[in-house]
Design a protein that fits this description.
Blueprint lengths: L6 H8 L20 H14 L9 E8 L2 E9 L2 E6 L3 E3 L5 H6 L3 E3 L5 E7 L4 H6 L5 E2 L6 E6 L13 H25 L7 E5 L9 E3 L17 E7 L2 E9 L11 E3 L8 H7 L2 H21 L8 H10 L8
Parallel strand pairs: 4-13
Antiparallel strand pairs: 1-2, 2-3, 5-10, 6-8, 6-9, 7-8, 11-12
Helix pairs in contact: 7-8
Length: 323
């Protein structure tokens, strides 16, 4: 169904939150999945790859030696410890590692979101067709609600400030409960509905962004580059493509640090595209491949021939060029 302009298919997919942005619309963006199955699948993949998983540990500070990060300190219930490494990947989303190392960054304040699901909705399809701002999701009688803070929470927050995060979580959870009460009272089919799950974390779209070896800018839309390691569309703009260069994953100051996910080196406008799950997965894969290749070759990631990364990524099914 991808790419279809059939109005019935578009209307159907809009009920699942798969059609966004300005029209005329096509079916083009899929986001519906079972979060618990997804977590389990990722855990299984990591275990099969023989990665050592350490949950319940918080990264604290980079250990810096000149132009190299030689490891990272962590805090856990059993105390503080360090993990030493030849290559370090910062996939923290907020740039915690490159910030503690002293790499430059830009930062934005944002309005927080808090998504939640409800079950026990009678005739959810009919309720959605009446124009409620919620979507179908997996499971009978269940809906997904992207509760937005816009115009309801008093201010934007700094998503790296614990006071701001605490304020936002309390305010958003209060608003979720108010919304649930309102829906039960006012929307047909919700009278006996119940909350299934409120998101474990606030929906934060942006905080710190690395200022790296290349800052991918808005004017580079649809411009291929020689060191591309991922291609992403823009979830609200049709036909817009960004070719993400390897340079946007590299810090200027450190030769063995790679950055992946939401906090790569892009400008504020391009970030609207690169912060989404698919490009974060793509830059994460590229970072992992680059780290493995550099360690095996005994060189720093910044010195690695990008063609080696590209060949490995394409061999694994990544799309780096439009044929």
């Amino acid at each position: 169904e991808w790419g279809s302009t059939d109005e019935k298919l578009i209307a159907h997919n809009q009920q699942w939150g798969l059609v966004w942005g300005h029209g005329p619309h096509r079916v083009r963006y899929s986001v519906a999945f079972d979060a618990e199955e997804f977590k389990f699948a990722l855990n299984t993949m990591a275990e099969e790859a023989k990665a050592r998983l350490l949950f319940h540990c918080y990264a604290c500070d980079a250990i810096v030696d000149g132009d190299r990060i030689t490891g990272v300190t962590f805090q856990s219930k059993s105390g503080r410890f360090a993990i030493l490494a030849r290559t370090v990947i910062d996939a923290s989303g907020d740039g915690d590692i490159f910030t503690s190392a002293g790499a430059p960054y830009e930062k934005e304040a944002v309005l927080p979101w808090l998504w939640f699901t409800m079950g026990g909705v009678e005739n959810a399809d009919a309720a959605i067709e009446q124009g409620g701002w919620f979507f179908r999701t997996l499971g009978d009688g269940r809906v997904l609600l992207p509760w937005g803070a816009t115009e309801r929470v008093a201010r934007k927050i700094d998503a790296t400030d614990p006071d701001d995060l605490s304020y936002a979580e309390l305010a958003c959870r209060r608003r979720v409960m108010e919304q649930v009460d309102s829906m039960r009272a006012e929307i047909p089919g919700f009278a006996r509905a119940h909350i299934c799950h409120i998101a474990d974390q606030l929906g934060v779209t942006e905080s710190r962004r690395l200022v790296g070896r290349h800052v991918l800018g808005r004017d580079e839309v649809d411009h291929p580059c020689d060191d591309v390691i991922a291609i992403t569309g823009n979830w609200t703009k049709y036909e817009s493509l960004y070719y993400i260069p390897y340079r946007s994953l590299l810090a200027t100051e450190f030769v063995n640090l790679i950055v992946a996910g939401r906090c790569i080196s892009v400008d504020h406008r391009v970030h609207h595209a690169t912060k989404e799950i698919p490009p974060c997965m793509a830059t994460g894969e590229a970072a992992g491949v680059a780290a493995a290749l550099s360690v095996r070759a005994g060189i720093e990631p910044a010195a690695l021939d990008v063609k080696l990364i590209q060949n490995r990524l394409e061999g694994q099914g990544a799309i780096l060029r439009l044929r």
